[in-house]
Amino acid sequence: MSNEINISQNITRSVYLFDSINPLSSKEIIKDINTFLIDDAHKPIMLFINSAGGRVVDTLAIHDFMSLCGVKISTVGIGVVASMAVLLLSSGKIGQRYITENTMIHLHLPFGRTEIKGTVAEELSEETDYQTTRLRELLIKYTKGKLDIAKIKGKKGILISPQEAIKLGIVDHISSAKNYEI
């Protein structure tokens, strides 16, 4: 069975994350999804992701809205999908998570600000530990246990090819340029 698939026929209600994940981009993603829900609460949505990741709390806001909205959201990794953006890619509807053949996935653990000292640093460390645990739990859920970030060491992280992303359960299909009619 080939994991390559043509996604072009499904692109009618598309949302784009082509920036870092921050309060503004998360607001825009949520607004775009909500606009489609108002139009038709049952028709699927595609989320295209080309992002180096960003803030954990803003990623979780997008994730939670995707989970709560009740519509099938397919995800497509294109370009680079890194850091917290990997969580969004993997949280699309099972069977409808795509990646293009030249996409690079980079996954690393959340890390806090290292220049801060004292009590604030301890609080940030606790927050980072919580974020790491939550990211780990969600990735284990979406990859059915095939990807455990506990194996990732340090800030460098790991690079994952599209083929490896399928094996790890991050995505379900690879979409290549040869699938598109021009």
Compact description:
The protein is of the alpha/beta class and 182 residues long.
Characterization of the model:
With 182 residues, the protein is of the alpha/beta class. The protein has one domain (8-109, 152-179): 2-enoyl-CoA Hydratase, Chain A, domain 1. Helix content is 36%, strand content 19%. It contains 5 helices and 7 strands, in the order βαβαβαββαβαβ. Strands 1, 2, 3, 4, 5, 6 and 7 form a 7-stranded mixed β-sheet that branches. Helix 1 (23-39) packs parallel to helix 2. The longest helix has 24 residues, at 119-142. The mean pLDDT is 85.
Output the CATH class name.
Alpha Beta
CATH architecture designation? Alpha-Beta Complex
**What is the mean predicted local confidence, pLDDT?**
85
What share of the residues lie within helices?
Answer: 25-40%
**CATH-assigned fold name:** 2-enoyl-CoA Hydratase, Chain A, domain 1
